[in-house]
Automatic annotation (TrEMBL), chain A:
Alphabetical UniProt keywords: Cell membrane, GTP-binding, Lipoprotein, Membrane, Nucleotide-binding, Prenylation, Protein transport, Transport
GO MF: GTP binding; GTPase activity
Organism: Torulaspora delbrueckii
Domain of life: Eukaryota
Cellular location(s): Cell membrane
Membrane association type: Lipid-anchor
Protein name: GTP-binding protein YPT52
An individual GO BP term: protein localization to endosome
Entry's family note: Belongs to the small GTPase superfamily. Rab family.
Gene Ontology CC annotations of this record: cytosol; early endosome membrane; late endosome; plasma membrane
This protein's record includes keyword Nucleotidyltransferase: no
TrEMBL record, chain B:
Places the protein is found: Bud neck; Cytoplasm
Biased composition (Gly residues): 14-23
Biological source species: Torulaspora delbrueckii
GO molecular function, one term: small GTPase binding
Protein name: Rab-GAP TBC domain-containing protein
Gene (UniProt): TDEL0E00730
Length: 217, 635
């Protein structure tokens, strides 16, 4: 089993918690209480190893954060040592994409790790009906997609309400992490030779954890 | 006040006569009875309010149906009953005789001994009522507590409440304070006895008045007569002129995310009108953001205001919010959230002092981080390091402070903490935190032994080395976090916290008085500021990995805010005034200064067992402090 730390970032009320609840509990509430501080959840998925078709379990440790601007000062604690980040915006709010872009910049500047998988997620597509008169979409799919491509991000438009694409976000992040870390994993496994147990827990968090700065903010 | 009392008395007069009176008053009020004490206040506010919103119509029948579309039993009158009846005063038990609206559990005798109320019957009776609600309109069931568990607990706790209320009545009568219409507004002077009564819970219907009294709300209001109304007109004017009302947008986003499982805050799909509660909430929060732009609106204040609104009118809610954010939680909601960081530092000091066993869960590798001596790593900051680099558990406990436990503890437990908060001031928040952490110890031990078990199997016979343990430190932290995050949500019985920890002499929490907390806050704020200045002085070039620090301290800027959190300008100047020649001297010096200043808790007061080793430690600490001061002087 592999463990990855994943953090959700994005403007207030874009649906970060709702995406997590859809993924972890497969449930949705129209009105979810605003997140104060942070919440921690975990969920596992399976990914196929490429050659032999064997399945590997991946456990996501998910940090769900409060979206309001002033909580931003706490964010470094959440994304420290993260393997993946979901940067969420609301497809019906143009501003929220701007906020998302600033999160992407912050992650790239502050974390500065090429292995960090960032996924741009446009939520609330259930409110968009391209043919309807009251189509609430404010951020075009192509606009966001081209930004994501340019920045080398994964990109999904999802609906936490209907569940559309939510599982896929985590699946593709899991696969990408699995792929990029596979060498590291192999090395880690080799180190464990001598242990008779095949099911080795491998920690993939990057920073050395005996670094005294690593546990704190 | 006089008018409110009168109104209340008129209303209750009607209620004591027949159900019809209550229904009429309900219609007049135009909203469901929200709480033990609030509704008539809301009525008053709406009547005089000239807002940009359509003024609340006098009749809002739609609200009756919130949460019970197809059921007439949850109408205004019934909603009010669900609040009052469980306390079983005479009026209500007589009402029960008319039998039209009550379900069996609503019959409560005044005599605590006779108050047998098979509460369970309500759930079966009200199976058609839709989701079953507690006496404040919250859903009994949530992700952590089943309705069955709730009912089982409530059967006993409701009787406890009846007994406590009986005692309160005797106390007030003996002290010669009137209990007009079950709404006393004067309370006996402060005393150990009263404190004990408060700790055992203020009767729910009296809470609004009691909180207002103990927090000295009226004094604040008297000094600021008309301010709330002025703020509301300002808000109206801004909106009318289509000017930007700062924070209005983010307030709007949170309105429907405040107690979505409480019937008073809900809007069903078929309702066009917003619930009055939401309108009140908007006005209070916007008015506050105009009143105190330095705080503006901070997520979590919606929960504070929301809970207050269940117990008092808008204007009082507003002033209570002012009092909470300035007196009880200074700086906690400020833009840089430094106040909340300071309080987390204080909490960590308290854990270390009062719950040493628990402390070892939080800082399991204290020796490594505490006395790190390798020259290239972060300079050792001695025993105080956790004040600047707060342990991850504080990500969780920070929200305990910001919302004063709303959404952290189940509502009855939250209210018991609030009772004490307003009577005893903010030191009680720390006591409550410590009590929760203490109670969660068992869970942590369980989680830990599971983990060790897993380790054992992985390492195939105990061959795992130190490195592996260290690698798993993050994992450990997550486990602690998960336990601490979930544990309080299941603390259905408020008495656990009190009987098992707070009232226990073994854990001398009573020593943690307000003076101690104030001193401790000042100390932590000063230490954090020194640390911040220290980093600015030696530069961040070789410390770019300290993202946490960059974010939470250095970027947080704004000295005024730090001052706000109890820090005198003296320390400020003190730390900034040094002129360092080079980095090394600077870091050595500051290290010395910081690590030598160890906070000393008050000890040796009554009921404390003196211990020679503690005595010796204190003596050494004092000595060190003196010598470091000398050093400071020399430099």
């Amino acid at each position: 089993m592999f463990q990855f730390k994943l953090v959700l970032l994005g403007d207030s009320s874009v649906g970060k918690s709702s995406i997590v609840y859809r993924f972890v509990k497969n449930s949705f509430d129209e009105f979810r209480e605003s997140t104060i501080g942070a919440a921690f959840l975990s969920q596992t998925i399976k990914v196929k190893e490429s050659d032999d078709g064997e399945e590997t379990v991946i456990k996501f440790e998910i940090w769900d954060t409060a979206g309001q601007e002033r909580y931003k000062s706490l964010a470094p604690m959440y994304y420290r040592n993260a393997n993946a980040a979901l940067v969420v915006y609301d497809v019906t709010q143009q501003d929220s994409l701007v906020k998302a872009q600033s999160w992407v910049n912050e992650l790239k500047n502050k974390v500065g790790d090429d292995d960090l998988v960032i996924c741009l997620v446009g939520n609330k597509v259930d409110l968009c009906d391209e043919d309807a008169e009251d189509n609430k979409r404010a951020v075009g799919t192509e606009e966001a997609r081209s930004y994501a491509n340019e920045q080398n991000l994964l990109f999904y438009e999802v609906s936490a309400k209907t569940g559309l694409n939510v599982q896929q976000i985590f699946q593709s992040i899991g696969e990408k992490l699995f792929e990029t870390k596979s060498e590291e994993i192999a090395a880690a496994k080799n180190r464990q030779i001598g242990s008779s147990n095949d099911h080795v827990n491998v920690q993939l968090q990057r920073a050395s954890t005996n670094d005294p700065t690593s546990c704190c903010f | 006040m006089g008018i409110e009392q009168l109104r209340l008395s008129v209303k209750l007069g009607g209620a004591s006569g027949d159900g019809g009176g209550e229904r009429i008053s309900g219609q007049r009020v135009g909203q469901p009875r929200k709480s033990p004490s609030a509704p008539s206040f809301h009525d008053k506010m709406y009547a005089s309010r000239n807002t940009s919103e359509p003024v609340l119509p006098n009749h809002v029948p739609a609200l009756n149906s919130s949460n019970s579309a197809d059921n007439a039993s949850l109408n205004d009158a019934d909603a009010s009953l669900s609040v009052i009846n469980l306390y079983g005063d005479e009026v209500e038990s007589r009402r029960a005789d008319d039998g039209a609206l009550q379900s069996p559990e609503e019959v409560l005798s005044d005599d605590p001994g006779l108050s047998s109320t098979p509460f369970g019957q309500r759930s079966s009776n009200s199976a058609t009522d839709g989701p079953d609600l507690d006496r404040y309109g919250f859903k009994k069931q949530n992700n952590f507590i089943t309705e069955k568990e709730y009912n089982r607990w409530w059967r006993d706790y409701s009787q406890y409440c009846v007994r406590r209320k009986h005692k309160w009545k005797l106390l007030l009568e003996k002290s010669g304070f009137p209990i007009d219409n079950d709404s006393p507004y004067r309370f006996p002077p402060r005393s150990e006895k009263l404190k004990r009564y408060v700790r055992k819970g203020i009767p729910a219907e009296w809470r609004g008045n009691a909180w207002w009294h103990f927090a000295r709300g009226q004094e604040k209001l008297n000094k600021n007569k008309g301010v709330y109304d002025t703020l509301l007109s300002k808000m109206d004017e801004l909106i009318r002129k289509k000017k930007v009302v700062a924070d209005l947008d983010i307030i709007e986003r949170d309105l429907n995310r405040t107690f979505p499982d409480n019937m008073h805050f809900q809007r069903e799909a078929f309702q066009t009108e917003e619930p009055p509660m939401i309108k009140s909430l908007r006005r209070v929060l916007v008015a506050f953001s105009l009143y105190n732009p330095k705080i503006g609106y901070c997520q979590s204040m919606n929960f504070l205001a929301g809970l207050l609104l269940l117990f008092m009118d808008e204007e009082r809610t507003f002033w209570m919010l002012v009092i909470i954010t300035s007196k009880y939680l200074p700086g906690v909601h400020n833009v840089n959230l430094e106040g909340v960081n300071v309080d987390q530092g204080v909490l960590m000091l308290c854990v270390k002092e009062y719950l040493p066993e628990f402390w070892r869960f939080i800082v399991p590798f204290q020796n490594q981080t505490g006395s790190d001596s390798s020259p290239n790593s972060s300079p050792s900051l001695g025993k105080n390091e956790f004040l600047y680099k707060l342990p991850p558990i504080t990500l969780c406990t920070a929200s305990w402070f910001m919302s004063c436990f709303v959404g952290v503890l189940p509502v009855e437990s939250t209210l018991r903490v609030w009772d004490c908060l307003f009577y005893e001031e903010s030191n009680f928040l720390f006591k409550a935190c410590l009590a929760i952490l203490k109670l969660s110890e068992q869970e942590l031990i369980k989680a830990r032994s599971l983990k060790l078990l897993r380790h054992h199997s992985i390492s195939d016979g105990g061959d795992y080395n130190k490195r592996e343990i260290q690698l798993n430190q993050d994992e450990t932290e997550m486990e602690i976090f998960q336990v601490i995050q979930t544990f309080p949500k299941r603390m259905l019985n408020p008495n656990d916290m009190f009987d098992k920890v707070i009232f226990k002499k073994r854990i001398p929490l009573n020593r943690l008085d307000q003076d101690e907390v104030d001193r401790c806050r000042k100390y932590v704020a000063a230490q954090r500021l020194k640390y911040k200045n220290y980093h600015e002085l030696i530069g961040t070039s070789n410390r770019t990995n300290e993202s946490g620090l960059n974010g939470s301290i250095i970027n947080s800027g704004d000295r005024d805010d730090t001052k706000h959190s109890g820090l005198g300008s003296e320390e400020n100047a003190d730390a900034a005034a040094f002129d360092f020649n080079d980095d090394r001297t600077a870091s050595d010096f500051v290290n010395n200064a910081l690590s030598s200043e160890v906070y000393g808790f008050k000890r040796g007061l009554s009921g404390v067992h003196w211990n020679n080793s503690i005595k010796e430690k204190v003596r050494q600490m004092r000595k060190r402090k003196v010598s470091s001061n000398d050093q400071l002087m020399k430099n």
